[in-house]
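Bench log. Compound arrived from synthesis this morning; before running ITC I wanted a structural hypothesis for how ribulose-5-phosphate sits in the protein. Inputs:
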Amino acid sequence: MHLCYSVRSSPIRAPCARTFYSDAMLSQQELKQQAADAALQFVDEVAAPDVVIGVGTGSTADLFIDGLAAYQGRIRGAVASSERSAARLASHGIEVFDLNDVAWMPIYVDGADEIDDHLHMIKGGGGALTREKIVASVAEKFICIADESKLVEHMGTFPLPIEVIPMAREAVARIVRLLGGTPNLRAGFTTDNGNVILDVKGMRITEPQGLEKVLNDIPGVVTNGLFALRGADVALLATQSGVRRLDKPRHAWPSLARPRRCGAPARRLDDGIDSRDQPLQRRPRLCRVDPAEGQVGGDAFVQPCRLGPQAAGAAQRIARRGNIPAT
Ligand code: 5RP
């Protein structure tokens, strides 16, 4: 067992492959294994015969899936965020559920390509971003597992993946260029949903939540790889000296997993529904744009968030084209 330490929460213990006092540097693969093993502690906490958990995609998620083999019979099964993960789960005898048959999961465990200390992430290096976002949205707690190289001060060095309906590829790419990004079609790759991926370099990500919304509002975009509106709740980052746990800053984003009354003051939405009567996951339209202030947001549940100048300009242009109603 390896003592893990925490920055914003109590220390945790997690099983690790190596001892604490080994002189040899751990390889990236060994670090991924440590992070994956540490996440099994969360499975221990929720394991019950009727519990289904969410499982991500990628090399770190693969190691977590391998660890789940020991939980056969202790959990009911899992929902996978990709065909690849579904096949791996099944190979270990873990029953794979269709998300349509699962209303709620206690945890979703997945890797990341970049994560900042707000636990916002870039994901989608493996091309499974859309299903990852969907499965994560039904989970109470998002647990990100990664080696420490994924922790960054500012996201954006890793090209931001955007899943796009094939016929919209060039139309989306033009708008992404207006936003300051350089999109590249991921060659020879089709997502599990039959779409293409644009990997976008050079994007300044100063306001991840605002940019996530702006990108998702471009017609033809299925989703983008920013996980900022709903980031991770816990990050388990393997370092040479143990697994470091980071917890989501308090009140950073609401959990979408459970219906909940909105605490926002009463306010009429466009469709005339009182916001207090809406459970959180039944969100109204994504956002409105205030061109004067460059703000995106403003519905009853999403706090307005300021965009950097580039995103604000792009949001204004999208608004002028009528894709988002400007207020
Ligand atoms: C797949 C993902 C992965 O979680 C991300 O790419 C990290 O992968 P890995 O664990 O192999 O480093 O988002 O779409």
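What the model suggests: Residues 28-46 form the longest helix (19 residues). The two ends are 56 Å apart (CA to CA).
ITC booked for Thursday regardless.
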